[in-house]
Amino acid sequence: MAIPLLKYAPTSQNSRVKAFRVGSDEDPKGVSLDKAFDRNAQNVVIESAYRQIFFHAFKVDRDTILESQLRDGQITVRDFIRALCLSDTFTRSFYNLNSNYRVARHLVEKLLGRQVYGKAEEIAWSAVIMTKGVAGAVDQILDSDEYLENFGYDTVPYHRNRVVGSREVGETPFNITSPRYEAYYRSILGFPQIVYTGSVKSLPTRARQRRGGFPEDYLPWVRSLPAMRTGAASSGNTSMDYLSKVPYRSVGR
User: Which residue blocks in 143-182 are alpha helix, DSSP H?
Assistant: First the structure.
């Protein structure tokens, strides 16, 4: 039995208030199909949609039939985004490898272009996923007033409000804060892996010169000391009772 979307409150009073600031080059730029008049511009829209949902789409992950339908005007960008969220690639490489909470947070970030309003919104959307599945959650997000007011039918969703007026550093991109694999599966797959493909540079001659100050430079001097000679180390007072040599202080003194 499907339950309605649970009520959740914004994290602050300004969470749903549009930012009032002067535009800059750091502001997000929306990609819309209604402004794509040639094939190159249409390819930009398609690539932006793949990057928004998958972060990167390999050739095997692309759906040429959906791309041709989008170019011919048979489907909208909103329909194309929905198909990507319900594709086998998304199900196999993200939904099956994460909990409902992370899937809900990922869908909100990717489709609505903002961070979730706290844990309450994650729980609310995860309940929708539990009762209606991913398809029901995606349809409910795409049919919401927030999505239609910000992106409509022909604009690819993007990360809104990357620039924060009160901070020098804006919000971190969603593909970094919410990676495709959860920590448990990243540990199984051995991520992160650092693969260096460049050439190893050798140190110059001046860097290999000994300039003094290294501990190993004092080894010959230490070995020449009487206590460090052969047989001298074994003659130490190892059986001495050091605790008996410590002055005793009584409690009443």
Answer: 145-150, 174-177
